[in-house]
Write a structure and sequence with these properties.
The chain is an all-alpha fold. Helices cover 69% and strands 0% of the residues. The two termini are 54 Å apart. It holds the Pfam family PPR_3.
């Protein structure tokens, strides 16, 4: 279809400027007759566009051109919108853009904005910027289209620069623009800028709508400020399901799972019905708590609310039960599913591997292959980990070798790390060291740390000390390396070396900055 559309455009073979009214040009026919024909064709294009078959307006436009019907800004607008709805629309869009420029419609801000949106939709941000820059008179809608294009293209810095440029040119964004700006602050975790734009919105907007509030909640959550997120949430009068979900995620992602569940109970009390996204958020919170009783409670709630047939929810439940140690429930959830995806299989296999059921994980892997699912890097990583936990050294080696030899995959650093863990768990420290020394990638600190732990556990203190020296060169400010070395010397009673390590930490001002923490949940859920 895309090739047919491109062939339909006679851009180079048939000059069409004679058919289109250019600024300042005289119409060769009666003005009313020409305008009437153009209007009828525009209505046809609009009807085809609304018929959800976007290729048809483009083909009709090519026919319109061949018949010598004059083109106006509405014609180009409908065609540009159609470009945004087809697979290769950016290719056709660039050709339409060339016509817009050649015919002198660059001053038509509506057409230019539509072009900008098409480029943003297909990720061609350079072309979007060009459209924006060549528009002489920009309106608020076009500014917002540029912000949205940057936001969709994951260019938060560009979004924030464009927003500042708006303010400098005395153009004030509305609620739509603020959502893009706040989302950019969220992506960058730019708390000071986010607070500044929050204050600007309060000062310049009469009312902050629900969409802006939700964006602010997400921004404060991303910046690690759940209390600020809750202040925004509690001042929101018209909360929707997105508001509740954002706030629950804000608590869950920042180490406050109990508060997240309390908020979920509050939502239930006010009669707000959860959706699938909300259920996934709550299941994630229960997973972080690691309590099987909470896990069973949310599972029953999911079934009661009619989400039991959702594959995404079932996958999350399998992962949750596995991480809560309830493998019986994880297996029964898996067996009860009528449709399984690759994520389903990997969640089940990973759960079995996590609890040392290596043989069972291999059995599930064989079943997965028989059902036609293709192996990928994540599945291989999970299988190597399964073999590591179960002590299946040869099987793990086979999975690693098969990546390149049978499947043409390039191992990640995580695959190398899992192989080192596999060998170290089996007591093959020397083989693990040889494996590390022959890696095509530079080993990271996790791999070295795994080796150190294995050397220490097997009493090979000298080798452990050598590896630790390499780690401390790689990560001179990581307090964990110093603690490891100190504990290693303490294990053999070398207290002078322990003191030297501690003194070195003090001189280099290295301190433990992330102490461990745990959760206590004395009450049970009843809902």
């Amino acid at each position: 279809m895309a090739k047919l559309i491109l062939r339909a455009f006679p851009f180079t073979k048939h000059p069409f400027s004679q058919y289109c009214q250019q600024p300042g040009s005289a119409a060769p026919r009666s003005s009313k007759t020409v305008e009437g024909r153009t209007h009828k064709w525009n209505m046809t294009l609009r009807g085809l566009l609304e018929g959800n078959v976007p290729a048809k307006p483009i083909l009709a436009y090519a026919l319109m051109r061949r018949r010598g019907v004059r083109v106006d800004s509405f014609t180009l607008l409908f065609v540009v919108k159609a470009c945004g709805l087809i697979t290769h629309g950016v290719v056709v869009g660039k050709q339409v853009h060339a016509q817009v420029a050649k015919l002198g419609f660059q001053a038509e801000v509506v057409t230019q904005t539509a072009l900008l949106k098409v480029y943003g939709m297909f990720g061609d941000l350079d072309a979007a910027e060009k459209v924006f820059d060549e528009t002489p008179q920009r309106d608020l809608v076009q500014w917002h289209a540029l912000l949205a294009a940057y936001s969709q293209g994951h260019r938060p810095c560009s979004t924030m620069k464009a927003a500042q440029r708006m303010v400098n040119e005395s153009v004030m964004p509305n609620e739509v623009g603020f959502v893009s700006i706040i989302s950019a602050c969220s992506q960058r975790k730019a708390l000071p800028e986010g607070k500044r734009w929050h204050g600007y919105a309060i000062k310049n907007l009469a009312v902050l709508d629900t969409f802006v509030h939700n964006a602010l909640i997400d921004m404060y959550a991303a910046c690690g400020c759940p209390s600020d997120a809750y202040n925004v949430f509690k001042n929101l009068r018209n909360k929707n399901i997105v508001s509740w979900t954002s706030m629950i995620n804000a608590y869950g992602d920042n180490g406050h799972p109990n508060e997240a569940l309390d908020l979920f109970e509050e939502m239930e009390a006010v009669g707000e019905r959860p959706d699938e996204v909300m259920m996934l958020a709550v299941i994630s919170v229960c997973t972080k708590l690691g309590r099987s009783d909470i896990g069973e409670w949310i599972h029953e709630y999911v079934v009661r609310c009619g989400f039991g047939e959702s594959v995404r929810v079932a996958n999350a439940l399998i992962d949750m039960h596995s991480k809560c140690g309830n493998m019986e429930k994880a297996c029964s959830t898996f067996d009860g599913m009528t449709r399984r995806t690759l994520v389903t299989w990997t969640a089940m296999i990973q759960g079995l591997a996590l609890h040392g059921h290596g043989r069972a994980a291999l059995t599930r892997f064989s079943q997965m292959q028989r059902e036609g699912f293709r192996l990928d890097e994540v599945v291989v990583l999970i299988m190597i980990n399964a073999c590591s936990h179960a002590g299946l050294v040869e099987e793990g080696k086979h999975f690693f070798r098969s990546m390149a030899e049978e499947h043409g995959m390039e191992p990640w650093m995580e695959h190398y790390g899992s192989m080192v863990d596999l060998l170290c768990r089996a007591g093959l420290v020397n083989e693990a060291l040889d494996f590390v020394m022959n890696m095509p990638l530079k080993p990271d600190a996790v791999i070295w740390r795994t080796l150190v732990a294995a050397c220490r556990n097997q009493g090979n203190v000298n080798l452990a000390a050598e590896v630790l020296d390499c780690m401390m060169e790689m990560e001179p400010e990581d307090s964990g390396n110093y603690v490891l070395k100190s504990n290693l010397h303490a294990m053999i009673g070398d207290w002078q070396s322990v003191q030297e390590v501690r003194s070195s930490m003090s001189c280099k001002k290295v301190a433990k900055t992330q102490p461990a923490h745990s959760y206590v949940q004395p009450t049970t859920m009843s809902m």
